[in-house]
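Much of our argument rests on the idea that a fold can be written as discrete symbols. In the encoding step, the backbone of a single protein was reduced to a row of integers, each denoting a local shape. This step matters because it turns folding into a mapping between discrete strings. For completeness, the protein is quoted in full, as a sequence line and a line of structure tokens:
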Amino acid sequence: MFFKNNILLLLFILIQHLKIFLSKLNLFIINQIHKHWFQIMAEKFDFLEELKKGLLPDTSILKKIDSFVDALNKHLKKQKIVATCVPGGSVAKGTFLKDDYDVDLFVKFDFEKYKDKDISKFLENVLSNYKSLEKLHGSRDYFQVLVSDITYELVPVIDICDPKEALNVTDMSPMHVTWVKKNIREGMQDDIRLTKKFCKGIGVYGAESYISGFSGHVIDILILNYGSFLELLEKAALWKPKVIIDVEKHYKKNEVLFELNRSKTLGPLVVVDPVLQNRNASAALSLEKFDIFRKKAKEFMKNPSRDFFFREIVTPDSLNKKAGKNIVIAFGADPGKGKVDVLGSKLLKAFDHILVAFQKNDFLVKESGWEWDKKDSALFWFIIDPKPLEAVEEILGPPEKIKEHAAAFSKKYKDVFTERGKLHARIRRKYTKAEQLAENILKDKYVKQRTKDIELVH
């Protein structure tokens, strides 16, 4: 009995040691796998470091901006206006891209003195000496001036410390800059720049109504929430509509969907503004651009490439290559002058109208798109099946037994016949070739009202 007990005890001890050994072996194997995986991932994404360096802006531009701001502040003081000009946007946050940025400046007017006054008029008077001055209309008029090849966008705001004091949505913008600068961690500026470049490359950057993509402010929040570009894309690849980002934890879980006005949560992404909790910073984002970002994030994480960061420049040659045996019809559309968002919206409406015209006339549009750099004419392009349409088309009418509708149909069309109890009519097509319709589009009243000039370029 004693011998049997000793054997059992020895077996128990051996089993325990074996468990410890296997546990350590398993941990070693897991560590080696993790080490190998991280090494592979590092090599897979190593080009991003070089890309980040290439996006670093020339900081010498900041001296020119500071000089302009100092001069404007002296002018404000000279005219005894209680206001201060400060840098805003990506320049103030240190997240602007090399050779691709806007210089936003906020002119902050004293709350008590100017809360009931038209601060846009005050700023316009101060800037009146600049020959390049251009007034832009918005919720509050703002201005653009060109000085030493730099375009400054000057936005008048009321100087506030509490978002509840805001008289206009723009009054909170300087607070967004303060929030980002307070919460941003080392290296995040690079990741914000990388995310902007990625969004530009896949065509989802910009909250303007004609783009309905990601604003710079939303990208700031996303990076501060997820920590880095790669972590954002890893999570975004798994997104489903109604993603909630509440970096300041203003709400509990999905509470925000019930607390915010329903109109603010209709979109696929709800980014609670860290400064003003009753605002969805990503309300302008469309489902289309959300899906593109999600899809491209998944593709990038699977097969990372520089190509994602550089938008293909559409040219007649590239369209011909893309079209193959199909035909290409392209229009050059001059939007004229005005506020970028307004011009872009008009161009989008003109493009959609042309697309619908091709489709309504039974032309098979295989692919279409439009490009605009906010400076020159926009390019509307359509790749269409080359096969000419039949000269005569058949139109389906009402059932023969519905006498009133049948009589009206027969009166409207000449060549009417009955088939399986329903009326049909044969009519001659106005256009059998897409090129014929394209020529007529140049005279289209709707298109001409939304463009300064339009011409066929292909």
User: Anything to note?
Assistant: The domain at 392-428 is CATH 3.30.70 (Alpha-Beta Plaits). DSSP finds 17 helices and 14 strands in the chain.
